[in-house]
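Subject: Sanity check before I submit

Could someone independently write out the C-alpha cells for this chain? I want to compare against mine line by line before I put it in a report. The sequence has 406 residues.
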Amino acid sequence: MKIIFCSTMFTEIEENLKKSKAPNAVSGHKYQENIIRGLIANGCDLTVVNIPRIRRYPDYKKIFIKKQDFKMDERRIGITVGCINLFVINYISASYKVYRTLNFLLKKNKDEKIILMAFNTYLPQTYAMKKIKSKYSNIILCDVIGDIHNPKFGISNPIKGIKGKFVQYYERKQDENAKYFDCFVLHTSYMASALNIEDKPYVEIECPFNPNKDSRLDMNYEKRNPYMIFYAGNLSQEYGVKHLIRAFEMIEEDNYRLILAGSGPLVDYINEIGKRDRRIQYVGYISPDNVTEFQKKASVTISPRTTEYEYVKYSFPSKTMECLASGVPFIAHRIPSVPEEYDKYIFYPNDESDVALKDKIVEVCNLSQESLNEHVKKTREFILKKKTPKALTEKVVELLLKIEVK
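---
Independent answer below. Compare away.
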C-alpha cells in the first residue's frame, strides 16, 4: 500500500528549538514520527511531504526556509518543502509547495490507490490535498487528528486583538476541514462526535511509544532522589498545575521536592510560589533529552489534569505514554481519553481533590523499593509490547486496506 504522509515536523529538533525565541511543543512531532515509523514497520510504501514545524519570523530566526531532504534514521524518505516564513505568507507559500510536490508524485502513480494522510487538518496541507484530490481520482484522504482546536472542546487560545481573531478563525477552519477527509485516526470516539464525522470510518489509537528512540531509562526503579516529584508540560490552569502545587504544599515534610518544566501562563505564578516554598523549583522550558535526565532522578512523574475541563475527552496525553515507559511511578487522575487497560499501571488518587492528590504522592513515595521495582517493570513491559509504533498502527493499516476509492 502506497502512502504519502503530509507532516508538520521539525527537521532537526534540537537545532530548531534553539533558533526559536518562543517555545514550540514537541509532542506533535513525536506523535507523527511514531505513526510514520509504525506504518513503515507494517510494510507500507511511504513518502513524507513535510512542512517544517517552526515558529514564524521573528520568533524563529530565519525568513527563507529552503527545501531539504526529509530523513529518518539517516535514510531519505521524502522532502521538507521550503517557504517564506512570514505571517500568513508562510501558509500560502508552504501550501503551494506541498501542492506542487504532491502533483509531481501523483503523476507517476495514476493507476494505483494512494493514501494521502495529513496531521491535524493543518490548513496549508489540507488546501493542497483538497485541490489534488479534485485532479486525481485514485486518492483516499486520511486525517490523523491529535487535537481539536474549537474552544468548545479544547483550550481557548490566549492571543488577543486582531491576531487573536485571525488565530480563532484559523483554528475553527481547521476543525471544519475534517469533513473533506474519507477516514480518520483518532484518540477517542469523543473526537468523532465533536467533529461530526461519526458516519465515516475511523480507528482509535493512543500515542505510540518508540522504544528504540525514547526509552533511555533503566528497567529497575531506583530512588536516586527520594521524594522528588517531576512534572513536564504545559504550565496552565487547564492542565492542573495550580492543583498540583496546592496539593504539594499540603505536604509538611521538608525532604520533598517538586520540579516543574515547560512553558505557559503560570510561569510567573510558579516562580512566586517558589520564593515562599523553596521545595518548589521551576527549571524552564527544556529539551526532550533534559526531560529524560530529570525523569532519571525523580521518585514520581505526574500529570495533574482533571475532568473539570472538556478537552480531556479529546486527546490522549503523550506524556502518559512517556511517563509510563520511563521506569518511574506515574500518578494521574482518571480521564476519559485513557483506556481502562491502563488502570493497573497508573497510580490514581481517590478523587480529584487537592488532598487526594497529596495523599497519593505521599503514598507512592513511601512504597517499598521491592514493590516499586515490580510495578515499573510490569508497566514498561506493557508499553514496550503493546504500545509501540508497529503495534498501534496495525489498526490503521487494517482500516486503510478496507477503504475503497470512490
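---
OP: Matches mine. For the report I'm noting this point. The chain has a mean pLDDT of 91.
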